[in-house]
Amino acid sequence: MRRLTVVQQSFAARSYRDDAVVLRTHKLGEADRIITLLTKHHGQIRAVAKGVRRTSSKFGARLEPFMVADLQLVSGKSLDIVTQAVAKGAYGSNIAADYGRYTVAAAMTETAEKLTDVDGEAGTAQYNLLVGALASLSRAEHAPGLILDSYLLRALATGGWAPSFTDCARCGRPGPHTAFSAPLGGMVCADCRPPGSPAPAAETVVLLGALLTGDWTTADGSQVPHRREAAGLVAVYLQWHLERVLKSLKHVERG
To answer: Can you tell me the distance from the alpha carbon of 242 to that of 129, in angstroms, rounded to the nearest whole number?
Structure first.
């Protein structure tokens, strides 16, 4: 058997495999792409996929946004290199075929990117949450807006910013309560309520709790006005804790 060269040995030593969801891509040169990935075990990484924009590429379609793939990668100084891609969740085509689903998926992947941008930090829980949401969106299991708001609340909870929609988020007094405060962490009692806090409908608060816990029977049975009000509160809560405006969220259509 031919011995591996020093270069081949180094290449093999730096090789690793992981499941990943494609968050976004942009062009590099004439045929390559830089791909931002959320991996199951290595957190968020950026990698080069060489030649994927050529029509002869064997795995270009597997590295489009919202796709889930089993990847072989090689660690690099600034960017890793994708050497193999096997599709695991081909959600991209179904999502891209519908504008409503596409904008929702874009908002979810942008959120995932913001929440997992700490170098070297594993993001297994965020990965599983995003893949589950994309799968549900691709299969049209629920209204796109409900899937989005459920994902956003659960992603924030996973990131350490779990809202309270029952007990007072500040003092813990048992609810239900009538005021909402993003800075304080959700619903608050009359004593803790900051001036000017919104007072959502009771049905909206029930919907928010259902979206956070995954109670889809309750969520699917909600009315449009309460969905819209809940979406506004989720957006405020998200942007408060991310400390930035989510660019893709403004394109999401609310029915």
So the answer is: 18
Residue 238: CATH number of its domain: 1.20.1440.120
Evaluate whether residue 237 is within a structural domain: yes
For the chain, give percent helix, strand, coil, nearest 5: 40, 20, 40
Based on the structure, what is the number of domains in the chain? 2
* 51 and 128 both lie in a single domain: no
Tokens of 38: 């959320």
Does the pTM of the predicted model rise above 0.90? yes
Alpha helix locations (H) across 43-123? 92-96, 99-115
CA distance 149 to 179: 19
Give tens-digit pLDDT for 182-223.
999 999 999 999 999 999 999 999 999 999 999 999 999 999
CB count within 10 Å of CB 132 equals 15
